[in-house]
Amino acid sequence: MEIEVDGLRKRYGQVSALDGVSFTVRPGLVTGFVGPNGSGKSTTMRIILGLDAADGGRALVGGRPYRSLRDPLRAVGSMLDASALHPGRRGRDHLRWIANAAGLPSRRVDEVLERVGLAGGAAKRRAGGYSLGMRQRLGIAAALLGDPRALMLDEPVNGLDPEGIVWIRGLLRSLAAEGRAVLVSSHLMGELEDTADRLVVIGRGRVIADTSVPELLSAASGGRVALRTSAPAEAMAVLSHAGGTVASVGADALTVTGLDAEATVAALGASQVPFAEVSAHRATLEEAYMELTRDAAEFQGVPGGAA
Amino acid sequence: MSAVLFRQVRAEWTKLRTVRRWTLTLLAAAAAMVVVSLLGASGGSVQHAGGREDGPPTGPEGKKVRDGLQFVRQELRGDGTITARVTSLTSRVEGGAPGSKTVPWAKAGIMVRAGTAPGASFVALMVTPGHGVRLQHDFLHDEQVASSAKWLRLTRAGSRFTASVSDDGTTWKKAGTVTPRSVPATAQAGIFTGSPAYTEMKRNFGALSINDLPAHAVGVFDHLNVTGAHPGTWTDTKIGGPFMGGPPGDDPAPEVKDGSSFSGGTVTVTGSGEFGPLPRGSDLVQRGLQGALVGLLVVVAVGALSMTSEFRHGLVRTTFTAHPRRGGMLVAKALVLGVTVFAVSAAALAVAFPMAQSRLRSSGFKPPGFPRWSLSDPAALRAVLGSALLVALVAVLAMAFGAVFRHSAAAIAVVLVVVLIPQILAPALPLGVARFLLSATPAAGFAIQQSAPHYSFTSEACLPEDGCYPLSPWAGLAVPVLYVVAAMLLAWWQLRRRDA
After folding, report:
1. Buried b (16+ CB within 10 A) or exposed e, A43-70
2. Structural domain of residue A254, as residue ranges?
3. Is A303 within a domain?
4. A303 Cβ contact list (under 8 Å, min separation 6)
5. Which long-range contacts (CB under 8 A, 24 or more apart) does B421-430 make?
6. Would the pLDDT of B14 be above 80?
7. CA nearest to A40, candidates A157, A142, A187
8. What angle do CA B239, B145, B280 make, to 5 degrees?
9. Residues A234 and A100 in one domain
């Protein structure tokens, strides 16, 4: 079930939180939704769920507005805020009332508790005593209750211990592998590096990039090639002649742009210039993200668009 | 119930019962209702002086009634009419100059009654200084038939009596027809006057003064005419005592004597006493249900929190993602909260009521001076279930205000102001203000605790806090219902309008 966001706008007083946000979350893929705090991720998710009204544009789930869905929790499972719990209610009871609301059997409660690793004693304790990691797991359990075709999780990695992070990556991958559309937000790109198939980068209420992870990386790398050679002067002359732009970055290190690694090796080989190492420079997702959101991040103090 | 609403109701029920603090608070409310009802029933006691075996007479419909008047009569056998003109009706209040004070329910008119024993079935057509021309029968039935008239006529045909009025004695207007329960073929027909005591009740911020002064009505009649079989001679009879049905006490030597005098065609009848239903007096049912007020105070917190906790913890988003139609959540919460609080309160009050009544009886509030109440009496059952309904309504009101304000303290404060403050302030406020507050705020719902029916045509000195609410029981309970409906609509509008 596809989630489609088209030209969403939302203002809080004079402040524009969303300024024409469009993207699509496809089934079978994990879509990362990244941006600095206050960039409009949570606002977008609340609008998709019909909780906040957009000032313009539309958000559709399987082609329909969320509020017109017959069985919304079977279509979209969501976790907006892991702390949205009554502290005096047991974890299991929290899931039970949601199951009641969705008309689901209580068997589902046990199943999802099992899946998020809260089966046993933890679910019988009052939620007020939960760690942030346990709240995240309970929130994810609630999202999974309706066995939904699409999932939307806001900052699910936040507060998890390393073991939990590994667990949630595996969970997200397996949910996508089951054919569900998965939208996961984060303000840290690194959290999504090994998980997301696609990335929607948002900043200042606009979508800055909407690509696959490899595309984003190569765009950020800018086709640069790192070269290590004992004859930098000759190499620079040969490569410039071949059409590249060469910069010296150390005593025996050069960076080449305009030529890919293969062309660089061919040019150097033809002129018999010795070289020790040629590699495509690989930017990290974090670098790419920092580059993309540099402008947006300067505005992370903008009020209203709570992350 | 639609399937969607059923799911929401189940979800809200699970929410309500899985927060232990709320469950404990509801149980505490139940305990408070029982304990406070018992404490309220323990205060005060009454000593029966004994000796006065003759309590109030029993009317033709089996109810205790008041029956006191001055009756100038003769026997009327079979069908016939009695006609008279009332040329004047004045009040004489003890200690006051003639005509300086007027009793609104003083009466002068014509009457046909079964006999002279107190409590006998009757039909009467009368003028009053404050309430127009009234047609009454058998103590409990009253109708205003004209705003004013001088000439009065009653016509008997079998068991039916037709009343007619006229301004000039020639053009007659039919005013009504009544059939009293048991006026035999041979009855007593004549003219009468009577007057309840003159009551001054004033209250200003705590200082209450009730002044009950004996009063007499002086009626001047002429054109007295009886048709049908009758002996033609008049007998003057005093029915009941001068303070029939009033509080037993010392009768001061009256300045004015009851009686009648004939002068040509003019008859002057001076009479005192009141006939009609008994005044309500101390309401034992209400005294046994005082815990409802305290229980209500406690459930207001549960009602408000059941809604505001959703906003405070962000749960409302989960609720709305499960059911995007927001009004449904409001209705489901109202149903679950209302039914739960009603069940808890009804159970607590049903336990408290018999215990409180038994305590009251041991303090002297027992037959024959006071009625014996049990839960099987319709009025007592209505008071108990109605009180529980009132507590439930106020809980729902707090819940709806919780959705409007999204803040517990604000919701609780507003509900306490509109429900409890009038109830608490009523004994201290001037009467008019107290009566207004107790009919325009949800506190009017406490009227459901009144056990005695209210007769508008009887004069009584009774304060709202003693069980004489300005509205009848069900009309009173309708007031908080209206408040709940209005608050729910406001809450619904707010939920739809605002982002969750």
Report:
1. bbbbbbbbbbebeebebbbbeeebbebe
2. 223-280
3. no
4. A12, A15, A38
5. B423/B293, B426/B464, B426/B465, B427/B206, B427/B463, B427/B465, B428/B205, B428/B206, B429/B203, B429/B205, B430/B203, B430/B204, B430/B205
6. yes
7. A187
8. 50
9. no
CA atoms within 13 A on the CB side of B370: 23
Beta carbons of A84 and B500 less than 8 Å apart: no
Please indicate whether, in this complex, the C-beta atoms of B324 and A67 are within 8 angstroms of each other. Answer: yes
Taking an 8 Å cut-off on Cβ atoms, the answer to whether B500 and A69 are in contact is no
CATH of the domain at A96: 3.40.50.300
* pLDDT recorded at residue A56: 94
Distance (Å) from the C-alpha of residue A100 to the closest C-alpha of chain B?
5
Q: Does A287 fall in a domain?
A: no
Say if A117 falls within a structural domain: yes
> A47: distance to nearest CA of chain B, Å?
9
A100 inside 8 A of chain B by CB? yes
Show Cβ contacts of residue B205 under 8 Å, excluding neighbours closer than 6 positions: B428, B429, B430
From chain A, pick out residues whose CB is under 8 angstroms from the CB of B7.
100-103
List the single residue in A68, A84, A87 with the smallest CB-CB distance to B317.
A84
Same-domain status, A126 and A268? no
DSSP lists the bridge partners of residue B207 as B204
Is the Cβ pair A72, B317 closer than 8 Å? no
- With CA atoms as reference, the chain A residue closest to B307 would be A86
For residue A307, being part of any structural domain is answered with: no
Residues of B in contact with A51 (CB under 8 A): 317, 320-321, 499-500
* Whether A51 and B18 lie within 8 Å, measured CB to CB: no
Mean pLDDT, all residues of chain A: 87
**Residue for token digits 């729902």?**
B396
Whether residue B447 has pLDDT greater than 80: yes
> Which candidate in A97, A124, A138, A145 is best for mutational testing of the B interface (most B CBs within 10 A)?
A97
Q: Are B192 and B84 in contact (CB under 8 A)?
A: no
Task: Tell me the per-residue pLDDT of A28-49, one tens digit each, with 9 for 90 and over.
Answer: 999 999 988 888 999 999 999 9
Q: Which residue among B7, B19, B317 places its CB closest to the CB of A86?
A: B19
This prediction has a pTM of: 0.77
A:33-52 residues touching chain B, CB 8 A cutoff? 46, 49-52
The model's pLDDT over B395-436, given as tens digits with 9 standing for 90+, comes to 999 999 999 999 999 999 999 999 888 888 887 888 788 888
Query: Among partner residues B3, B14, B325, which is closest to A100 by beta-carbon distance?
Result: B14
With beta carbons under 8 A apart, name residues in chain A contacting B314: 80-81, 83-84
- Amino acid identity of residue A13, one-letter, is G
C-alpha angle B409-B413-B414 in degrees, rounded to nearest 5: 120
Count of the separate structural domains present in chain A? 2
Residues of chain A with C-beta less than 8 angstroms from the C-beta of B3:
103
Of B21, B22, B313, the CB nearest to A85: B313
Minimum CA–CA partner of A66 in chain B? B324
| Pairwise CB contact (< 8 Å): A101 & B3 | no
User: For the segment A122-163, what is each residue's pLDDT rounded down to a tens digit?
Assistant: 899 999 999 999 999 999 999 999 999 999 999 998 888 889
Is the same domain home to A171 and A242? no
Is the pLDDT higher at B464 or at B431? Answer: B431
**B209 burial type by CB count under 10 A (0-12 exposed, 13-18 middle, 19+ buried):** exposed
Provide, as residue numbers in chain A, all residues whose Cβ is less than 8 Å from the Cβ of B15. Answer: 86, 89, 97
Q: Is A69 on the interface with B (CB under 8 A)?
A: yes
User: Using the 8-state DSSP alphabet, how is residue B64 labeled?
Assistant: B
Report the alpha-carbon distance of residue B193 to residue B127 in Å, rounded: 10
Closest Cα partner for B242 from B189, B196, B191, B192? Answer: B196
Q: What are A227's strand-pairing partners?
A: A254, A278
Tell me the torsion sign for CA atoms B24, B28, B30, B31: positive
Residue type for position B488: M
